[in-house]
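Worked problem 6 (solution included).
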Amino acid sequence: MHPIRRTTLYLFNATLLFVLSLNAYANEESKITMGGDVSLASEYNWQGFDYSDGGAVIQPEVYLSVGNFLGLIWFNYDIDTKKSDEFDYILEYDWVISDFSLGAGYAYYDYPQNLPHRDGWLSSQEVFFTLAYDNPINPYININYDFDEGEGAYYTTGLSRDIESSYGDFAVGGNLFYHDDYYDASGIPSVEISTRRL
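Solution. The predicted structure is:
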């Protein structure tokens, strides 16, 4: 079971995030890329839900892309408990048609048992589809369907825009999330407004 609260609406996500990216290998001729990211966050916040009881986390990922195919492994390390309590394995295929970017994939979420913050969580699987349009406000929509423990869907849509200023270049955006009977919960769990320096 994966706990989801039903009706909380968050207008701002105040999680502090630091990301270190490494592109370890890239071969233009064969279109093979390997790399990774490491994020340090003040808490594990997903669509408005705090999955680390307010504790800081480290979230590394490694990826391999071959042409339009991408394989990715991501995990969450809880600094307070000194345990890795979630592992995500993702396969995705992406393609571009004119100004549209499309993607489809599969994700497996593994939650080791008998760990703090994750007691009773069972591993689950989902398929997902993405659509984005390249224009000044860059709208996109993601559709995720959990056909295992979650037995439901969740949707993400948003906009983003790059802004140039005398203080530097910034990206400003927003996301809206909706759950449709996802772990027996329906409704809008979170709205996010974000800005970051480019």
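Discussion: Confidence is low (pLDDT under 50) at residues 3-15.
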